[in-house]
Amino acid sequence: MRDLHVLIAGAGIGGLATAMALQRAGIRVSVYEQAPALGEVGAGLTLASNASRILRHLGLGAVLDDLAVIPGRGAVKHYRTGRTLVDIPRGQTQVDRFGAPYCQIHRNDLHQALVAAVQSADRDCLHLGCTLEDFGQDAQAVTAVFANAETARGDLLVGCDGIRSTVRARLFGTEDPRFTGYVAWRGLVPMERLSASLVVPDSAVWIGPGHFLTRYKIRRGELLNYIAIARTNGWVEEGWSVRSTVEALLAEFRDFEPTARSILMATPPDQCFKWGIFDRDPLPVWSTGRVTLLGDAAHPTTPFLGQGAAIALEDAMVLARAIVAAGSVAEALARYEKARVARANEVLLASRENGLNLTTTDPDRYDEETHRNEESLDLASYDAMTVPV
Ligand SMILES: Cc1cc2nc3c(=O)[nH]c(=O)nc-3n(C[C@H](O)[C@H](O)[C@H](O)COP(=O)(O)OP(=O)(O)OC[C@H]3O[C@@H](n4cnc5c(N)ncnc54)[C@H](O)[C@@H]3O)c2cc1C
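Above: the input entities. Below: the structure tokens describing the complete assembly.
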């Protein structure tokens, strides 16, 4: 079923990957993004093998080769002593095991590559400054209604509009996202501000009581990205871009060993942000009629397995395959949900649980047995190009 016009709300990683997967299948898409200009926040993103495999399949392998960093090894460390609790082989080991690398990239580098690819297939398909407000549907079509009073008519509407999805609210009610009890700081540190000995191995995580710090290189190794997470009470702000100070961050991570603190200390003062981490309970269905959800709109996931964007990419690939395989929109969405809802909800819940594992396990008792990641949970082997739809 390729003779369709698909409307996509939201030009984040999920919306753009969906557009790209559909375009490659010969399906016409129109993407509507509320922001007047395109961009992603300045932060890193881990692409485990299940995610990088999709981007390679979509033709973005050269972008990953050029800009992403493949860590040779990873480590989980004790927050106070720096002792390695778990050593994790990455690099070629992951390629050998899963057929695609585990790599880390600047979110903006990936976002720009997706924008360029989608626009090169159809330079008129991206519509900026278009906030979806509502939609209506009947047996023939769906009509999206935007805040600027414009409308668009298509065969299918995919809500890729993030954790505060309007499409989700219209389909399933307006319950707010759930505050998870974690506040996170993120920072980007130019590598020239750090001595190389501080960044060994390539990618590392420190765990301590109620605290968790992860850091890895991105953009050809020019920048070090970190996320520092602390359990807290009563945080309510959600945006990614609330400014914080290095002093406040260091005070929160005062018990961490000198190597970890040196990295935090090297943060340029204008590069320190914090935000509250939210998720939602799993939904049993994502679609009604000609409208469905994808990515964070369907399953906003905590960062504790580094899988949120990965499952958005999986959704994108599987939805495109379901549309191609089906004889009607209803059949396509039934195939999509059957292939995806359980998988995405499993990752959402496993990520929630891993937050507790990383922040409440006594670090002196943390080892290979207690460690959970995309490999031990068998998430990395998922192949969105071949799973049955
Ligand atoms: C701290 C942190 C670290 C993470 N690290 C990783 C990681 O390492 N690996 C990983 O795989 N995932 C990670 N994730 C998860 C990942 O970032 C998200 O799951 C992913 O970005 C979701 O993409 P999306 O396109 O679904 O949503 P979004 O990126 O939120 O995009 C939604 C888009 O929709 C637009 N929009 C919203 N409302 C409307 C509307 N009404 N009309 C039109 N447009 C609208 C928004 O402006 C935005 O552009 C992390 C998340 C967090 C919080």
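Note for the figure: The chain has a mean pLDDT of 94.
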